[in-house]
Amino acid sequence: MKSQTVSINDDDAFITLLSVETNEPFHVDLLHFRLVMGTLAIDNEDLDSDIYLALGLKRLGKGAIGTPRILTLLSSLLEKSVQKNEMQIETVSAKVNIAIFHGLRVPTISIRQYIDRIFKYARCSPSCFLVAYIYLDRFGQQTDVLLTSRNVHRLLITSVMVAAKFIDDTYFNNAYYARVGGISTAELNRLEMKFLLSLDFRLQVSINTFQRYCLQLQKEGNQVERPIRACGIKESWPSKSDTQCAPTIAR
């Protein structure tokens, strides 16, 4: 790797590297850095790959603004999955939920708003959302549970929290995540344990798996890019001074 470590910003969960060739700093998500450093087969081209930049897992400078693109793509993918599953449920007898994750009512907050809220207040690294999606996929394979509008919010807050604990250097406790997610601490504790047991505690994500899911999200992005731009939504990174966390609902 033709770069050397300069500093680590725990607030953003990004590591700053200094290019030996250009002497210019660039920023990489801590998870991606750990994966690269722990895999001998990864070279500098992988570290500088456009896909990580496109998904918001890598930034070119501290002045970069905007919500990581991975949040938009993930919300779009989950929304499509929920719509497809609920259409399937209407026509066939399908196993749709594990009772503990199934809410009594559909939350009024959308998947996109919920993901943005988690990112804003939990301040976990963008890679947490990709790893959380990998966990959700594993959860579905292990349990045959389908994502629906009644369980997706609980599964999201649980999977992101578990991912943050596993890959980030710093993270908030369950009580804080419960407040962000709009559920009680006791309930989130139960959700976390059920989620981990369903995954058989398999939380490790290989570099090949990480890259495969990145490509999947990038492919999704190519399909939704025009509609997103047409909306004209102006996005920005959460302010570090914005520490207030008002309760939401996931009931």
Automatic annotation (TrEMBL):
Gene Ontology biological process terms from the UniProt entry: cell division
An annotated Gene Ontology molecular function: protein kinase binding
InterPro entries: Cyclin-like_sf, Cyclin_PHO80-like
Highest taxon, organism lineage: Eukaryota
UniProt keyword terms in alphabetical order: Cell cycle, Cell division
Keyword Transport included in the entry's annotation: no
Pfam families: Cyclin
Gene3D superfamilies (UniProt xref): Cyclin-like
Entry's family note: Belongs to the cyclin family. Cyclin U/P subfamily.
The protein's name in its UniProt record: Cyclin
Upper lineage: Eukaryota, Viridiplantae, Streptophyta, Embryophyta, Tracheophyta
